[in-house]
Design a protein that fits this description.
The chain has 577 residues and is of the alpha+beta class. The protein folds into three domains: 3-196, Endonuclease/exonuclease/phosphatase (Deoxyribonuclease I, Chain A, 4-Layer Sandwich); 346-455; 460-576, Alpha-Beta Plaits, CATH 3.30.70.1820. Helix content is 45%, strand content 13%. The strands form four sheets. A six-stranded mixed sheet has the order 4-5-6-7-9-8.
């Protein structure tokens, strides 16, 4: 959890995993005691921040390997709290951890990042250790407080159901607790978990005094100088053996004079003013980071994730710059080369002559040099530690960015591979469809040719009679019998398939429609054509009608079409004929 979220949330205790603190390094949050279990390389770690306004005591735990897992415990609010972080869980670590839990005085509450997955507390899958973990929870009579909500923000393309942060407690305590996750991670990749005791009336936190700031633009410096002179007029010479007492008097005098002559900035009721270095840019960036995180939570796309990471990195960078700038301004204001004579001249340390004054100055210089020599190693160590931690943090951010880009590259590569497979499948299907279309076209052409041949074959049994007058109510079989009588042949009704009239393709106005006669056998058709050739033509008068035009077409249509095909007539014109 970031220090911003620590300052934002009001709580009696805060439990943080992956604290990333080196053993022996200094970490301080105003108003809180810090209980830690650090890893030797400064990675991982677990810590508890307990408000100094409530009674508490750290619980001494049995020896364990801090390089495998980190645990720290505290007794507060009549409950034993345990903060746990397990980077790589295994059965040996779980057994050791639950033996530590079993040694705590009840009731017990355990909070931590276990990196174990099971669907019973909100994960999308079960890992190999989850069943054994549930058995250990049952053996120690503990309850899991998780309600199925995710506790970790995942990368694009991953299943959002990730709950690796677990909260355990004894059954008697679970009835008093309320458990929920907050939607704003404050720059972390884990959602903060809020546990509250609605009935903890015996531990009412006292109101915190706001951090009041002096409004230097409205200061009365004349009154300030007079107040300082009035408070320091009775200050006795500073003895070498009691410099701390003199320093306290001097400090209290300055603060009292400041409270008299310099007004303080108004603080909102129930709120703590922002830090001295905080400005509108910090507030705007935190707001943008929250909005980007909410947008990514609604639409977990790579573009929204990259946008959120950029805003989060810019926020961290800006906050660090503002902190450094605020410290530099404070240091510059306190290290001015212009000295103000705080002591009145008549209250300087008593000196008999110039030589004694030189001795005093030499003594002061020696004490200052000694103090610098004593403080310099610690200062250099702290600076080295801070620089090392900053470099490690930057490398960790670089590694996270590299992993993120790698994951995004894998997602894009996987999508491209899937699209490539889909395109190849579509190309194969297109090729198959083209082959099938060609096959169907070939079959269709064959069927058309066969149909044409069948149609021509069926026409071999047809005879077309042209020029027979047409009248209403005529009897076509009677006309056929009249034609047969003139040709000296006999046509029975059983030898006819059908007889009907059709309109000619090039019809003449007033001309009768042609007769089409189909015989059941081709031999009968040939007999009729042979008799017609011998007759040298018939007229309507021959068959009992008043039209004297020739009434019979003696040309075989099949022979005519074959002649046209041999002469090279185009196939479309051939089909029309």
């Amino acid at each position: 959890m970031s220090q911003e979220s620590i300052s934002y949330l009001e709580a009696s205790a805060r439990f943080s995993q992956e604290s990333r603190l080196l053993p022996g390094s200094r970490f301080r949050v105003p108003g809180f005691a810090c209980l830690r279990d650090d890893k030797n390389n400064g990675k991982c770690g677990s810590c508890i921040l307990v408000s100094r306004s409530i009674p508490y005591s750290q619980i001494t735990l049995p020896p364990h390997d801090s390089n495998c897992f980190n645990v720290v415990a505290v007794r507060a609010l009549d409950i034993s709290f345990l903060s746990v972080y397990i980077p790589d869980p295994n059965m040996s670590i779980l057994t050791n951890l639950f033996s530590i839990i079993g040694a705590l005085p009840p009731p017990v509450a355990v909070l931590g990042d276990f990196n174990i997955h099971h669907s019973s507390w909100g994960c999308y899958q079960n890992d190999s250790l989850s069943s054994a973990f549930l058995d250990l929870v049952d053996d120690h009579n503990l309850c899991i407080l998780n309600d199925g909500s995710p506790t970790r923000r995942v990368l694009p393309g991953q299943n959002p159901k990730s709950a690796v942060d677990l909260s355990l407690c004894t059954p008697a305590t679970s009835s008093r607790l309320t458990w929920l996750t907050l939607c704003n991670t404050h720059g972390s990749d884990h959602f903060p978990i809020l546990m509250s005791f609605p009935d903890s009336s015996n531990y009412i936190l006292p109101p915190r005094n706001p951090r009041l700031k002096f409004n230097l633009s409205k200061a009365d410096w004349t009154l300030f100088s007079q107040s300082v002179d009035a408070l320091l007029v009775n200050l006795s010479p500073v003895p070498h053996e009691n410099t701390h007492a003199a320093y306290s008097i001097f400090r209290n005098a300055l603060l009292s004079a400041a409270e008299t002559a310099i007004p303080t900035k108004n603080a909102s009721r129930g709120k703590i003013p922002s830090l001295p270095w905080w400005d509108s840019d910090c507030s705007d960036l935190c707001k943008q980071r929250k909005e980007a995180e909410m947008e990514y939570a609604l639409h977990m796309s790579p573009a929204n994730y990259i946008s959120y990471k950029e805003v989060a990195a810019r926020t961290v960078r800006t906050l660090s710059e503002r902190k450094r700038l605020g410290w530099n301004m404070f240091y510059a204001a306190g290290s001015s080369t212009e000295f103000v004579n705080i002591y009145p001249r008549n209250r300087l340390p008593e000196c008999g002559n110039e030589e004694s004054l030189s001795d005093v100055v030499a003594t002061i210089n020696a004490e200052v040099q000694l103090a610098i020599q004593q403080a310099l190693p610690g200062f250099l160590t702290e600076v080295t530690t801070s620089v090392t931690r900053a470099i490690e943090k930057k490398f960790a951010e670089f590694e996270n960015s590299e992993k993120t880009l790698g994951n995004l590259y894998d997602i894009v590569k996987s999508s491209a591979a899937k699209n490539s497979v889909t395109i190849k499948k579509m190309q194969s299907e297109n090729t198959n469809l083209t082959i099938q279309l060609k096959s169907l076209q070939s079959k269709l052409n064959a069927m058309e040719e066969a149909s044409l041949k069948q149609e021509q074959w069926s026409r071999l049994q047809n005879v077309e009679v042209v020029g027979v007058p047409e009248s209403a109510g005529e009897s076509l079989p009677t006309i056929i019998n009249g034609i047969a009588k003139q040709l000296n042949i006999k046509i029975c009704q059983q030898e006819l398939d059908f007889v009907h009239r059709i309109q000619a393709k090039r019809s003449v106005k007033g001309a009768p429609r042609n007769l089409i006669i189909r015989f059941h056998s081709r031999s009968k058709k040939d007999e009729v054509l042979s008799a017609a050739r011998k007759c040298h033509g018939l007229t309507s008068k021959d068959i009992g009608m008043q039209d004297f035009e020739k009434a019979f077409d003696r040309v075989d249509h099949i022979i005519l079409l074959q002649k046209l095909q041999q002469l090279g007539i185009h196939v479309d014109l051939y089909r029309k004929i």
